[in-house]
Amino acid sequence: MANGPAPFSDIGKQAKDLLTKDYNFDHKFTFLVPSPTGLGLTATGVKKDQIFIGDICTQYKNGNTTVDVKVDTYSKVSTKVTVNEIFSSTKAALSFDVPDHKSGKLDVQYLHNHAAINSSIGLNPAPLLEVAATLGDKNLVLGGEIGFDTASASFTRYNAGIGFNKADFSAALILMDKGKALKASYIHSVNPLNGIVVAAEMTHRFSSYENSFTIGSSHAIDPYTRVKTRFSDNGKVAMLCQNEWRPKSLITVSAEYDTKAINASPKLGLALALKP
Description:
Layout: H1 13-20, E1 27-33, E2 39-48, E3 51-62, E4 65-72, E5 77-87, E6 90-98, E7 105-111, E8 115-122, E9 128-136, E10 140-149, E11 154-165, E12 169-176, E13 181-191, E14 196-205, E15 210-222, E16 225-232, E17 236-246, E18 249-258, E19 267-274
Parallel strand pairs: 1-19
Antiparallel strand pairs: 1-2, 2-3, 3-4, 4-5, 5-6, 6-7, 7-8, 8-9, 9-10, 10-11, 11-12, 12-13, 13-14, 14-15, 15-16, 16-17, 17-18, 18-19
């Protein structure tokens, strides 16, 4: 819901997206064909060194039901059936892969004015159970998540976080890795007219007292061109330039240089997304 709290996975997501989203150091091609009848097609191909990986995904929408079917280059077929408003404010999704008969999973999401709950259970004899919940509203969110492996009778995760959102900035604090690390993130819109946004993310590990950080920025050169920069404490500097050369069709050029690896060549990537 618009005025309700965001899911736990969205705490700190704005800063993370600015620092990581759209950065690509391979060759990627995406072709999207929408359809007014509810049937869409998306083809994606990625070339990593001399290896080519691709998939074709079809999506069919009918009322509150959406069916996604994806086939990749390894002949794996992934299917996901999503039903919105199965109950009031509730969405359920059933997913499975072929030929992996143990991959079945059921996800249920419940959104309320003051709560958001996401749960997942594997559809096999020894399922993995995951539950994430948040309380609050669109400005202040407090939540946590746990994962339990019934096969080993052990917790795979237990994290907690708090997020504070305003129109021009967002801050988050997450206790992650089973309480072994603390991550803080911040994103601020400096100049909405020019699309200038800055973000920072810092992680502290309690066992080793190690700190790591990443800072970045985004700047809209014009209504169709955006430039992003990123710098990490490990010495890696990255830059991205994205241009919408036609409506919803994007070309993105990314580059990354490791200042601590003097003899290494910079990484370059090109991504092309076409939507007729």
